[in-house]
Design goal:
This protein is α/β, with parallel strands linked by helices and 393 residues long. Helices cover 39% and strands 15% of the residues. A hairpin with a 2-residue loop joins strand 9 and strand 10. Helix 3 packs parallel to helix 9.
Length: 393
């Protein structure tokens, strides 16, 4: 028996585990200090009332023979998929229900989708990058190549004919940088993928933060994307489902490589390896798309957007280069005085008791940068901004 030795090639500790350990040690040694955490991208506002009412109602249904639900369809109930399709239609994107697959979150599907692809495929990821893209492919033993995202291209790299790959990862709005591709830039990636018979894995988990109608919220806003792209989205940031777990993946029927339909392959994979998201959670997700649900979640999103603006404004005031903070919950800043990422992490923690995420944890090009999130409470974010203002002076 042999184990998968590719696990030797990934970091033994997940980035956020290291951050958590450092913070716990500091708090244990300094119990009198108030630490403000703006590091991990977890939400702090509760689920909106529309969602909790739907969850309660669905739970009651499960207690009666007439309305009890056992195994549901692995790809999701049509009542939710129809609402998701309507959501796309409101952004001028047409999808069929059988192109939408409900999941327990984008992170799971981003890893699981790799079941569809040969291990000899080459993978292209931007650097810096969400660690899951790299780690899941490293676990499978795939060759990974990097395209530079940096200050010179505002962390929005465009295709390079010298970097050919079979699988291409794009995240917009980006985690960790908060940068957002416009339609012309995404069109270049779509054309590049179609020309080279590549697949784009498009992470749209933060699309709900985009407030400019001219910026694409889905890659399917781009002509030609349905023949080269799979899209992942989530209720985690849109509606606070980080602890409830629900998302969706779009696999268009036009995605055919050779004689293989990726839509049919993904359906077969899910029916074999996944039992679906619970009926109760899907009813809660459905409530997100009601008129009242949309109103309530927008109030929460506006709350986080205001936090992001506060952070962005104080950095702008002190001339600190940063991306994000406008159409994204993330603010990606250049460490002052050319400090290294982890040095800046330690300095902030020890001197002003603010926790962020070291940019180098997202890749080589993240060295010297730092990520803050807007998912804290308004009170804590305001206090953190005041501390930053004094610190940056």
């Amino acid at each position: 028996m042999k184990v998968n030795e590719n696990y030797k090639n990934i970091a033994q500790s997940y980035l956020f585990s290291t951050v958590g350990k450092k913070v716990s040690e500091y708090m244990a040694a300094n119990p009198d200090k108030k630490v403000i955490k703006l590091g991990i991208g977890d939400v702090t506002l509760p689920l909106c009332k529309c969602v909790t009412d739907a969850l309660k109602s669905a739970s009651e249904e499960m207690g009666h023979k007439e309305t009890f639900h056992g195994y549901g369809p692995e790809q999701g109930y049509d009542f939710l998929k129809t609402k998701i399709a309507d959501y796309y239609k409101s952004h001028d994107v047409e999808l069929d229900n059988d192109e939408i697959f409900v999941s327990d979150g984008a992170k799971s599907d981003i890893g699981n989708i790799l079941d569809l692809f040969d291990k000899d495929n080459t993978v292209l990821v931007p650097d810096p990058v969400y660690p899951v893209y790299v780690d899941t492919n490293t676990m499978a033993g795939r060759k990974i190549i990097y395209i530079d995202a940096n200050e010179s291209n505002d962390f929005l790299p465009l295709p390079d004919e010298n970097l050919k790959a079979d699988i291409i990862y794009i995240c917009s709005p980006n985690n960790p940088t908060g940068a957002v591709y416009n339609k012309e830039q995404l069109k270049k990636w779509v054309d590049f993928a179609n020309k080279n018979h590549s697949i784009i894995l498009f992470d749209a988990a933060y699309e709900c933060f985009i407030s400019d109608d001219n910026l694409p919220r889905s890659i399917y806003s781009i002509d030609g994307a349905k023949t080269c792209a799979i899209e992942f989205c989530s209720f985690s940031k849109m509606a606070g489902f980080t602890g409830t777990r629900c998302g969706w993946t779009v696999v268009p029927k036009a995605l055919v490589f050779g004689e293989m339909s990726l839509n049919k392959m993904w359906l077969r994979r899910q029916t074999t390896k996944f039992n679906g998201v619970s009926y109760i959670v899907q009813k809660g997700a459905e409530a997100v798309f009601t008129p009242e649900g949309q109103k309530q979640i927008m109030q929460n999103l506006d709350y986080y957007k205001q936090n992001a603006k506060m952070i962005s404004d104080v950095l702008t005031k002190h001339g600190i280069y940063h991306t994000g903070g406008t159409h994204s919950p993330y603010i990606w800043l250049k460490c002052p005085n050319n400090m290294k990422s982890w040095d800046f992490f330690d300095y902030l923690l020890n001197n002003v008791q603010i926790v962020g995420t070291p940019g180098v944890g997202f890749g080589r090009n993240g060295e010297g940068f730092f990520r803050l999130t807007s998912f804290g409470s308004k009170e804590n974010t305001k206090e953190a901004v005041e501390r930053l203002d004094k610190f940056l002076k």
